[in-house]
Amino acid sequence: MSTNKVAEFTAPGMSNDKASDAISILENRMVALLDLQLTLKHIHWNVVGPNFIGVHEMLDPQVEVVREMTDTIAERIATLGGVPVGTPAAIVERRTWDDYGVGKALVSDHLGALNRVYDGVNADHRQAIEKLSDIDPVSEDMIVSQLADLEQFQWFVRAHIESSDGALTK
């Protein structure tokens, strides 16, 4: 369900073809971040066990920052002449990964699974950066900035599941 470029305009100095390519990449990142913010909130509601409160409280700021990232990407899509679609059906239809499968569970179970979610989101952000470098430096810069925050969030998660010798326990 790619709406891609629909307007007759784009950012000045950018071709419609490059705008369309950038929009396609940004749509993928927007869907991933919409899914991530919902997953983070799901974990926030369903995490239990030792260190519950620390993890519970760690996740809400991540949700807020990821929500802002999503908004920034949606506005960039519109700036380039596209239509950002963030409905639940569009998220499910366009995502290329499995749904988060952990329900009510211990901190270590959720954070192990969340670490794997961040692996995918962050790796895909890096691929988007590579593709955008030849298409749109403004969008590239935006995704680079987001990746810095996403990698820090993953570090926060990993700190909970890391052993003293640096190995991940989950």
From TrEMBL:
SUPFAM superfamilies: Ferritin-like. It comes from Thalassotalea marina. It comes from the Bacteria. Belongs to the Dps family. Gene3D superfamilies: 1.20.1260.10. This is DNA protection during starvation protein. GO terms for molecular function: ferric iron binding; oxidoreductase activity, acting on metal ions. Residues 25-162 form the Ferritin/DPS domain.
